[in-house]
Amino acid sequence: MSGRIRLGMVGGGTGAFIGAVHRLAARMDDRYDFVAGALSSTPERARESGAELGLDPARSYDDFTAMAKREARLKDGIQAVAIVTPNHMHAPAAREFLKRGIHVICDKPLTATLPEAKKLARAVEDSDALFILTHNYTAYPLVRQARAMVADGTLGELRVVQVEYPQDWLTTPLESEGQKQAEWRNDPAKTGAGNCVGDIGTHAHNLAEFITGQRVESLAADMHTFVPGRLLDDNIHVMLRFDGGARGMLWTSQVAPGNENGLRIRVYGENGGLEWAQENPNVLTHSPYGEPPRTITRAGPGFTQTTGTRVPPGHPEGYLEGFGNLYSEAADLIEAHARGETPETLLPGIEQGLRGMRFVDACVRSNKRNAAWVTL
Amino acid sequence: MSGRIRLGMVGGGTGAFIGAVHRLAARMDDRYDFVAGALSSTPERARESGAELGLDPARSYDDFTAMAKREARLKDGIQAVAIVTPNHMHAPAAREFLKRGIHVICDKPLTATLPEAKKLARAVEDSDALFILTHNYTAYPLVRQARAMVADGTLGELRVVQVEYPQDWLTTPLESEGQKQAEWRNDPAKTGAGNCVGDIGTHAHNLAEFITGQRVESLAADMHTFVPGRLLDDNIHVMLRFDGGARGMLWTSQVAPGNENGLRIRVYGENGGLEWAQENPNVLTHSPYGEPPRTITRAGPGFTQTTGTRVPPGHPEGYLEGFGNLYSEAADLIEAHARGETPETLLPGIEQGLRGMRFVDACVRSNKRNAAWVTL
Amino acid sequence: MSGRIRLGMVGGGTGAFIGAVHRLAARMDDRYDFVAGALSSTPERARESGAELGLDPARSYDDFTAMAKREARLKDGIQAVAIVTPNHMHAPAAREFLKRGIHVICDKPLTATLPEAKKLARAVEDSDALFILTHNYTAYPLVRQARAMVADGTLGELRVVQVEYPQDWLTTPLESEGQKQAEWRNDPAKTGAGNCVGDIGTHAHNLAEFITGQRVESLAADMHTFVPGRLLDDNIHVMLRFDGGARGMLWTSQVAPGNENGLRIRVYGENGGLEWAQENPNVLTHSPYGEPPRTITRAGPGFTQTTGTRVPPGHPEGYLEGFGNLYSEAADLIEAHARGETPETLLPGIEQGLRGMRFVDACVRSNKRNAAWVTL
Amino acid sequence: MSGRIRLGMVGGGTGAFIGAVHRLAARMDDRYDFVAGALSSTPERARESGAELGLDPARSYDDFTAMAKREARLKDGIQAVAIVTPNHMHAPAAREFLKRGIHVICDKPLTATLPEAKKLARAVEDSDALFILTHNYTAYPLVRQARAMVADGTLGELRVVQVEYPQDWLTTPLESEGQKQAEWRNDPAKTGAGNCVGDIGTHAHNLAEFITGQRVESLAADMHTFVPGRLLDDNIHVMLRFDGGARGMLWTSQVAPGNENGLRIRVYGENGGLEWAQENPNVLTHSPYGEPPRTITRAGPGFTQTTGTRVPPGHPEGYLEGFGNLYSEAADLIEAHARGETPETLLPGIEQGLRGMRFVDACVRSNKRNAAWVTL
């Protein structure tokens, strides 16, 4: 159908969790046509996945370089590509598309290592194409609401930030039991120097910076590997100092039983506090100092966002809708780009990706020095 | 793309809440192509909406009869149609498609009146096409889980059912203030003899029967119209007797401030209780008698459903995903139908639609007799 | 110590739950000395209980008539007596003290039958002494707050009242297993014509009238006995019509697994709603229509009560503190009475006791007529 | 009445919050008679308070030394004394009673400084009398339950401890506005080197050690003073390493709007997690790994404690009841002491007091070294 953006995908063959999420997010508001892919690094699996997903066989590629080359030449070639491989392949894949002017929507964390990230940043700078990083939690409507309330001074000067992201899926040595995602995440060559810190720590860090509008200036990190035989961290405690004067704590864990996907943030300023939790994301608690706490619901009274929500209050939207917001705002940007416009955006991009990698790097450096303060 | 079901829509022009929901639900799992519509009863608005939604102008119709006739003749005509008009138009529209063998996915309540409903039921019987009613709340994963736990005897013999569906959007006389949806819902000619009872009471009734596997045998209803000048009910209290021996209460309201879309059900049997609330739908509380209550999460420990969920536990799914489940299961049914198969399904159909209309009719009859018991 | 009120007790020997609660409540704010008792209808147990509780043996009586006679003659005889026997003994015991000018603090429900209640009411009228009924839930600070907010018009004209009181302790036939309290509660001679309705239904009814300031004018009740062999009701569904125009529903149950002491009330008016639940009683939710719901905490912002709370917000008070409020306010009344004053009070008395018995009686009458509406 | 323990009090004149709490806690289970006091350091206020509280004027003292001397000589002198002065007076007062064999129940933190604490510890060692510190939160029934579940291996080896204690009462410079408690708490001479860390940080630290059965071995602390003009800390972030291998984070704040008294702890081990929050203390969440989380209620299914609870599940107990548990267990100890017995106890004493002061001292030392790790 005319008007939709032609989208390709690298990685995300059938069975991969996050690839399916990206495709669904792209469909959410009907802004994309998914038309090409290099869906696996194993050619046979790539082709099978393409067939299962209904791709034209001529546009189901064995490798991303071939895909980038050919799609760039096609009259109706893809305009954007989603990159959903393990971390270490993000940069090589992204560069192939960026240099051919194809917009990139890339999974987080940006790369496996900070040097790779810097190299990718240069590639983004050198390209006219857009680069969008799927820090999806920043696109939940009430996260946007929280950011707006901080920005408009509702809380006054910020003092304290408490952010946490506990999970429990790695409580046991799942990586030794053939679970594919656990396997590559525990492989430093594919994941980088930190697993828990990179996979979910970067989300927590990004969310804190997004809502507060302040940047983590320095941190002190104590990283742990609790499960015997594991190579990378599965729990991390961090103290934060923000450039705007706020002080914070950040906890992420993959070994905290009872926590499924417990991203939660609390922000306190001289005039009030805000609290939001991802698992029940349609609610934001605002506590003006000296007044009763107020429950702001998505699209309900007190909600002032004008985008990013599809159904009336009380009809819960969640993870997929938030992810869909990223894709739909990316579509807006891509269309504006085609018109030669560069509108302001709240979408995370290369800068947020680099900051995330600096966060991981700083945690690892601090941890090696017994949790000494290091700057980002 | 091959493999998708060709879908049309009657009603649901741009600006209509529920039409957009149906289209998004149809896209959710990529099982449908939306290709034709008679999107408004006003021809001009119908055409504008079709254009905005990217329909081929030749398949954007002024009225549903023309659409049914032409699509039935097309080689690639629609296989299914979604009907999302005001209640009184459900039956006339549905019949046009049913008699031409086009499957119908129809919004609830079934019709505006019980006689219409019976007439439509005969049309369904006479047709080879499928008829599916979008009682969407029965497709939430944890509602399915609750039903399964009742069915497998986890609660023992059922005793008490408490179901409620409070909202607050009609606390003031919104229908006098130009709000379009409030207007037609307050018009007995379009809505039928009950507004609150038909719009959301039927959901509560349907959910109770779905989870318990019992049918409401008789009821006593006290209906109220609190807002001055309003023509139809905006609050209703009902006592229920189920055919399996359970006893219950049902409350729905559109004038309960602080309740956005508060559908909630609690079921108690001799061995335990279950509780589920639509506004935080990823959680089901199971209280085995004499043991600590357990929190079952969507896709988490204790969850035994194998379909209807897309992302891991802790990544909240909500209203649109539940609605999407209906559409995707309808796609399964439609494909099976094409193969000549008639698999079992949990999807609501004409029977549930008729029961809903009998529920509305019984409430109105009981209320006229000062809440005397009447049978359904 | 000088200044404390001398208190006696009828019933409540060691092992009895509610007797210990009354004594603790009397101690809560140090307003009473517990100095005499007829603690059991079994003389030996009465004496043993008195000894265990440290009573002067001369003031540990075998029966309440002897106690009333002697204490009335003593220079330092009791000024007030707490009556905590099974229901059928409330009235005979109370009359002995009332006619001797000793104030009575009586457990609820008032009596086992309505005629007894009326007879007791006449005794109260003929006596100069005070009569206080321990509908303790009306003395929680946030229940008082709710009442005040209704009274001052915060909600506007009331429309809907939803009150419920589910428990689960009689899910199995506990009365056949030697549990003493279950035994007498299942004995119509001791309990009256309703068990669940009398024991906890009266609390729910009383709470609804207390907060709304309206009186139940008529009701339709469906009573159930789910556990085989049980003589009295263990679940009851009631529809309510209030004299001020509000409409309501009331549910009480002793067979709802997972509910320990689930008294909860929701009140909705044209301008807002209120919600309070006994199990987490330090929180009251106020939902002004069109604004975010607000969480009012005991002693926190928005709390306007000046009595009935002992510790700062965030330090939870509960059941015993609420009960203690009744006793401390009774002490205020008793001291005022001694000064010849009759201050206004929110304490429940004979009128509330009578209304409770009329409620029970109406439920039983309505149920016998298949839940027809009956007036109280 | 015979059998009760004769109790005196130092500090806690009328108007002081914590003195009234101690007296109520002592009355809770009727184990004490409050008979003597040096209720203020201002003689006139001491006498007025004694009169208001009904003390015999001969036993309402101007200073605690005179009180200790005279009460020790009286035939019916006090057996125990509660010390509820500002921190810096705890030690001098306690020593006067300890050296005369009078048991001491002392408010926390133990002292204003670590040297004072050590000196007091020697005085306790030299005395035959008991010394009990009111770390009251360890006496909540479900805190005891949590400790028991850790001790019996329910969670397996512990990994992560998250404890926090946010409040908001010092969000503004209350100490400059004449609030008495805020005044002395902000005075280093009376409070010691840390305010937030000493007042509530010690509670959080104590709770973590109590439940885990592990001791904080080292910590890294970042302390903050957000309110301009304030002399002492009002927020503190700490990373913890426990001697049993667990790692943790501790946050306390007095400037976090919306938090009234938000003590909360989460403990995770290889087999499961536990969560408890003081503001709704009748609930403990237990998440066995791989099973649905279970809600254990005070006195409900799964609760295995045999003491410390007075009313059935669903009848909330709170702060005062928990405090009362400390007093009642202290009464048990005092009676056992009189019989020459020294039973095991969970009551906090001088060791916990010393550990608390070492915690404060370590935080201050670490903070001075830019949050370097220091040992306790």
What does this structure look like?
With 376 residues, chain A is an alpha/beta fold. Chain A has two domains: 125 residues, Rossmann fold; 194 residues, Dihydrodipicolinate Reductase, domain 2. The first copy, chain A, is 35% helix and 22% strand. Chain A is built from eleven helices and 14 strands. In chain A, the strands form two sheets. Chain A has a nine-stranded mixed β-sheet. A five-stranded parallel β-sheet of chain A has the order 2-1-3-4-5, with helices on both faces. The model of chain A has no long low-confidence stretch (mean pLDDT 96). Chains in contact: A-B, A-C, A-D, B-C, B-D, C-D.
Overall form of chain A: globular
Largest beta sheet of chain A, briefly?
9 strands, mixed
How many strands in all of chain A?
Answer: 14
Q: Biggest interface, which chains?
A: A-D, 43 and 43 residues
Oligomeric state of the chains in view: homotetramer
